[in-house]
Design goal:
The complex is a heterodimer of chains A (about 600) and B (about 400).
Chain A (H helix, E strand, L loop, with lengths): L1 E2 L3 E6 L3 H12 L4 E4 L7 H4 L8 H6 L12 E4 L7 E2 L15 H4 L9 H4 L1 H9 L17 H15 L7 E2 L2 E2 L23 H12 L5 E2 L9 E2 L5 E2 L21 H4 L1 H4 L5 E4 L3 E7 L6 E7 L5 E11 L3 H11 L22 E8 L15 E4 L18 E6 L20 H10 L3 E8 L8 E9 L5 E6 L4 H21 L3 E5 L42 E3 L14 H17 L13
Parallel strand pairs in A: 1-14, 2-3, 2-14, 3-11, 4-20, 14-22
Antiparallel strand pairs in A: 4-5, 6-7, 8-16, 9-10, 12-13, 13-14, 15-18, 15-21, 16-17, 17-18, 19-20
Helix pairs in contact in A: 1-14, 7-14, 8-13
Chain B lengths: L1 H15 L11 H13 L2 H5 L11 E4 L2 E4 L16 H10 L1 E2 L3 E2 L6 H4 L4 H13 L21 H9 L13 H11 L5 H4 L17 E3 L2 E3 L15 H10 L10 H8 L6 H11 L18 H13 L1 H4 L24 H9 L1 E2 L11 E2 L8 H12 L11 H11 L6
Antiparallel strand pairs in B: 1-2, 3-4, 5-6, 7-8
Helix pairs in contact in B: 2-6, 4-6, 8-12, 10-12, 13-16, 15-17, 16-17
Classes of the chains: A alpha/beta (about 600), B mainly alpha (about 400).
């Protein structure tokens, strides 16, 4: 192993959170090295407009994603099963390389509701302790919406998000989401231009008393220069967002929002194709001394650093904590320990609407081209009569009409042959998909730990994921899908197909890459890995970022909240931690 | 100890060598001024090499063959360590290096001859402070008789006029400062003034645009269509400082000039240059009437534009400071379309500066457009939205493609 000169900060993973923290800390004069296991990627070299819209290469063959042979996970539904390795990514698609999942996301940029941050307190107050599902481990975040609001704002202004405020400092705004928490100011750019599907949805939803509003979008409605001086172009509605890098400089990503400014920082350095294998600790385990990583030749390097920032994907952050011996691993049997606890996912479902008299052009699309209604999300509605907790937002999004995978045909259509082709031709322009993005709450028997059998190419145990959809979530999802179908009926669909979520969870069909929890934030070391500043309770010079901090997942995409927490942490490090390096910011 | 000793030797050399030096070798204000002047002159553009900013070795492409930039670090054997301030001033202003050897005018002494002795000395002092790098420079690749340096003497008789910058007392200080920078250290004319077959400046063509290295450096005079006539002073300054403005974005060799030089210059100097440039007379050449809209090239070009260009460049307006506007663009309407052909074939990337770090790129279209298609497309762009520029021929594109080594479209 070769020992390198020490740096002030080592950042593990150069995606959204790693690039933001690198920029903020390098700007404060610290020397920062980001170590990223995938390749360097930038718009000019990697997302060429003449070749980027390649569905086979990117959407089918997963060009931008982590290769399972590099790292995968084992999965099972219940603790009494034997977990088996995922050999081809399906249910979720972990990113790889500079920009991480921020490269290939769709761009839905949400704030969680104020009640989401105090979920347990809120639900117990409103419905009583007995209303919570059996075995649930729902908990408060230890940080409130009001505290995070300025940081949501900073992330949205970094990314230039296109949307319409529904609540400005407590004043409800026409055309926005009336159920959102108060915002200090309007979105940086106006909403995207809606297509025909969204107009039908908006009209129908309004007619039955719902409150539709434009989906907050990281596909920008107009050119925008962010506070780092980095400029983005307007979205062209090409429909190649999810699973693709944007070639138009119009989807907010580390590439389009941070890296052009970051790479100009003289104290910043990135090492790509280098995989951190371990965070190194002093013999007493109370202080991190840096990281060990391997390059593509298999050479091991030690990078000493004063401060270690865990900025990889949620699942990989948790695994690195487990492999490094930071924090007490969660023990399901005894219900003690924290690392791997409160793993949650997202409960999504949909309806497909088939029309006779509408002409939809799905080819005009974008990852975040959509109208949404939050009337059945979170705790916006009274759950008392329904017997479940949680909710979902209801969306009418036109992501794309890509030729290989966008083939909406009614049930009963043969899967191939001339009848299938005929049905494709008939329905391509006459179908609309409506979706629900639902909460996923924490349970004692849904968790992450190290697999006892399977190892990666470096001989380290794979992480094991134990998860299933619970009756509470399925009930919630069925309820919201029924509400969605009501909208579809008013929209005039001749046929409505409900695609309900059901158990058991399967790793095969794509569902969502919103894996959350496992290294959760909180105010009690017995139930959280990091304190309210995302600083490890046990090793104060390690901070953790990403959706692994979520104690449970809300009915929203995670990136907005991940971005807000990152800025919150950046300020905590710069303004508080650095004044007294190595010390905990919160005494338990 | 050794470091100290060699520093001592260097100090002695400094004291002993430059007898004619008018400023002291430890004059930090002069060193700093020299550093700034090295940025203004963009010395690093040619003299930066793999071994350091001023260590030389980079091949400079000329119509006559490659010339390798000199090592101008203070190394005694391979750099200019043994030069006196007088030697340096003669190189800068007379094109001769010790012992009495002609430099090739790829080194822009025909422009540097305008620079004041005080500025030349400041540059000299600064160059004594850069790290000394041993770097043997390869021999130039020039054919006979150009490989005989005395041939340059004849060239000098024809094209070189030695002489310092003359203030124009009728003009403002700002104008004069701009003229001094543009004509002298800035050596803008090295690219932007047309060259004759021997590489000398075209008489009467000062700053009216010039072809070099497969690019066409655009007209920088006050011509309204092809020059800076419609640019405000502020827009010109913004372009030089950030690499872009509401009208254009720098790419190609100018992107390097902006990144390494003008983006680091003072606002006052940029302003002075803009004031001077905007006062330069244009060629007065009238625009030719554009082809009729139903011309076959124009029709084919319009369809190609829709499919290949419209997403970014829209209906000629582009996206402010991201994708340059094509309507009214000076670059688009130059008399020579070399830059446009090259950008379509090779792609390009905008300058990146502290003020505007995003460097949007345009990809190569060589693989998907034939020579005839590129010609039609550019003829269309050069003659739409009020633009007027000579049509582009298939042959021009063929030659450019051979030059840049781009593969033909299938």
């Amino acid at each position: 192993m070769i020992r390198l000169a020490s740096k002030d900060v080592v950042v593990i993973g150069l995606g959204w959170t790693g690039s933001i923290l690198s920029y903020e800390l390098a700007r404060s004069g610290l020397s920062v090295v980001a170590i990223e296991r995938g390749p360097w990627r930038d718009t000019a070299s990697d997302f060429n407009i003449t070749t980027a819209p390649d569905e086979l290469r990117y959407a089918i063959r997963h060009d931008l994603f982590l290769r399972p042979q590099q790292e995968t996970q084992t999965a099972r539904n219940t603790p009494d099963q034997v977990a088996l390795p995922i050999r081809r990514w399906g249910s979720y698609l972990p990113g790889n390389g500079v920009g991480g999942a921020g490269v290939h996301w769709n761009g839905h940029t949400w704030r969680f509701m104020p009640s989401d941050f105090v979920l347990r307190t809120h639900l117990v107050e409103r419905y009583g302790e007995g209303f919570l599902p059996a075995n649930s481990t729902i908990q408060d975040w230890g940080i409130t919406y009001d505290e995070l609001e300025p940081y949501y704002d900073r992330f949205e202004y970094l990314a230039g998000i296109s949307g319409k405020a529904g609540n400005l400092k407590g004043q409800i705004q026409e055309g926005g989401n009336p159920f959102e928490g108060p915002r200090s100011r309007e979105y940086p750019t106006p909403p995207m231009r809606m297509a025909h599907s969204q107009q039908l949805f908006e009209k129908a939803a309004k007619s039955i008393g719902l409150h539709p509003f434009p989906l907050p979008s990281a596909n920008l409605s107009q050119a925008y220069t962010n506070p780092y001086g980095v400029r983005l172009g307007p979205c062209t509605y090409c429909g190649f967002c999810e699973r693709f890098g944007c070639a138009n400089y119009s989807k907010a990503s580390p590439q389009t929002c941070v890296l052009p400014a970051l790479v100009r920082m003289p104290t910043f350095e990135a090492r790509t194709n280098c995989e951190v294998t371990k965070i190194n600790l002093t013999p007493d385990g109370k202080h991190a001394t840096g990281v060990t990583y391997v390059d593509t030749q298999g050479t091991e390097w030690e990078q000493p650093a004063e401060l270690v920032l865990l900025c990889a994907y949620a699942l990989f952050n948790v695994r690195l904590l487990l492999l490094s011996g930071i924090g007490k691993p969660y023990d399901y049997q005894r219900g003690v320990g924290v690392v791997g606890r409160n793993y949650c996912y997202q409960t999504n479902a949909s309806c497909t609407l088939f029309f006779e008299d509408q002409r939809i052009n799905p080819f005009v699309g974008a990852g975040s081209l959509g109208m949404t209604a939050d009337d059945y999300n979170g705790d916006v509605f009274d759950h008392g009569q329904h017997g479940f907790i949680g909710g979902a937002n209801m969306n009418c999004n036109t992501y794309n009409g890509r030729p290989i995978t966008y083939r909406p045909v009614p049930p009963g259509t043969p899967r191939w042959g001339s009848a299938w082709k005929r049905a494709t031709a008939e329905n391509y322009n006459r179908a609309i998909a409506l979706g629900t993005q639902g909460s996923s709450y924490a349970y004692r028997d849904c968790y992450l730990d190290l697999d006892p059998t399977y190892k990666d190419r470096l001989g380290r145990p794979l992480m094991r994921l134990t998860f299933d959809y619970k009756e509470n979530e399925l009930k919630m999802s069925r309820f919201v899908v029924d509400r969605l179908a009501e909208i579809g009926k008013v929209m005039g669909a001749k046929q409505i197909v409900r695609n309900q979520r059901s158990a058991p969870w399967s790793v095969v069909p794509y569902q969502t890459t919103h894996n959350t929890g496992g290294a959760v934030i909180g105010s009690d070391p017995a139930t959280s890995v990091v304190n309210r500043y995302a600083q490890c309770w046990d090793v104060p010079n390690v901070f953790v970022t990403g959706a692994c901090l979520f104690p449970q997942n809300a009915g929203y995409n995670p990136t907005g909240t991940v971005g807000a927490l990152t800025y919150w942490t950046a300020d905590a490090i710069r303004d508080r931690y650095l004044r007294n390096s190595g010390q905990p910011l919160v005494r338990p | 100890m050794r470091a100290l000793a060699s520093a001592g030797v260097a100090a002695l050399l400094l004291l002993a060598g430059p007898a004619a030096l008018q400023i002291g070798p430890m004059d930090y204000a002069a060193i700093e001024r020299g550093r700034y002047l090295a940025i203004v002159g963009d010395c690093a553009a040619c003299h930066a090499g793999s071994k350091g900013d001023y260590a030389g070795g980079r091949a400079i492409e000329t119509p006559f063959g490659d010339i390798y930039a000199a090592n101008i670090t203070p190394d005694d054997d391979t750099g200019i360590g043994r030069w006196t301030a007088e030697d340096f001033a003669r190189a800068m202003r007379e094109g001769k290096r010790p012992p009495e050897e002609h430099l090739y005018p790829a080194f822009p002494y025909p422009y540097y001859t305008k620079v004041s002795r005080e500025d030349v000395d400041a540059l000299y002092i600064f160059l004594r402070t850069v790290p000394s790098v041993r770097n043997e420079i390869p021999a130039n690749q020039l054919p006979f008789p150009l490989d005989v340096r005395t041939a340059v003497a004849g060239w000098n008789v024809l094209f070189f006029r030695e002489g310092r910058f003359d203030r124009d007392p009728i003009r403002s200080d700002e104008w004069n400062r701009g003229a001094y920078l543009v004509q002298g250290l800035g050596h803008c004319g090295a690219c932007h003034t047309g060259k004759n077959v021997l590489g000398g400046d075209e008489p009467g063509g000062f700053m009216q645009g010039g072809a070099l290295q497969g690019w066409f450096a655009p007209d920088l005079t006050s011509d309204a269509r092809t020059g800076l006539g419609t640019w405000s002073i502020e827009e010109t300054v913004e372009y030089l400082r950030t690499g872009r403005n509401g009208r254009s974005m720098a790419s190609g060799p100018m992107a390097e000039v902006i990144e390494n030089s003008t983006s680091k210059m003072t606002e006052a100097d940029l302003r002075a240059m803009a004031v001077y440039l905007k006062d330069l007379p244009g060629s007065g050449a009238a625009a030719r009437a554009p082809p009729a809209a139903d011309d076959a090239s124009m029709r084919a070009g319009a369809a190609l534009y829709r499919d290949n260009c419209h997403a970014c460049h829209a209906d000629g307006e582009g996206v402010l400071q991201m994708f340059p506007a094509l309507h009214g663009s000076q670059v688009v309407q130059q008399r020579d379309a070399a830059t446009l052909v090259r950008i379509v074939l090779e792609g390009t990337r905008a300058a990146t500066t502290d003020a505007a770090p995003t460097a949007p790129s345009m990809p190569s279209f060589a693989w998907r457009l034939s020579n005839a298609q590129v010609a039609d497309l550019l003829t269309y762009i050069r003659n739409s939205w009020g633009n007027a520029g000579p049509s582009v021929t298939e042959d021009e594109v063929r030659q450019a493609r051979a030059r840049v080594g781009a593969k033909p479209s299938q």
